[in-house]
Specification:
three-stranded antiparallel β-sheet, 44% helix
Length: 235
Amino acid sequence: MNFSDELMHALANWQRGWRENQEKREQLSNELSTAVEDLDLKFKKVSSICYRKRFLHNGELVDIILKDEKKEGVVSWTIDKEFAERFKDLKKDGAVSGAIFEHYPSDDEVVVNICELWKDAGFISAANDFKEKYPEESKPLFYFRDSQGEVVLTSPLKASEIIALTGASSPFDDLCDQVGIPEMQRDDLFRELVESGQTPGELRYTSREGAQQIIDNTVRKIYEKVQTYKSKHGI
């Protein structure tokens, strides 16, 4: 199979990223989609669940939560759940929350399975040839390889597929007040919690059940407000 330099350039540029420049992302996604057109179908399949870490913003919550579908175009997912959890920390200025989506993609949603490419001896040989010819351009390709478990999909974001949201527990003193722990005992308790990996107030992911409960409550409250508004205005 011929793994062209065009393909290597497109993969390397995609993995170099676009620094949140959406016009650049669109350009790179078009180049990648074109470059992978002639790949064997085995590189356009994913046989495992995929995960995407994504920060959520107010302007897109209607599509994600109420419509349960926000199309993003061509984007990167991962087959490595732990990588998704580590990706880009737990909070971002201006974001409502961080979320992890879990999805099993259909074949028509798969642009390219980068992990599968790196299992192929022919691809590895072509990548090494590309590296000799274009040492600078090939750096992202060899820096990331398949270490991120990356697969490129066109799958939409769905609130029903969120398995975790970021949120913080109540401040430590507030928790102590609620359960009646005297101030003189709090230092020892805090030390014990830190040593056991349960630091209060630390930003962390919810459970799958907790995430879906938050989403269900949000949807319910929104519809309650809509009904109240309609009743008030005779709609």
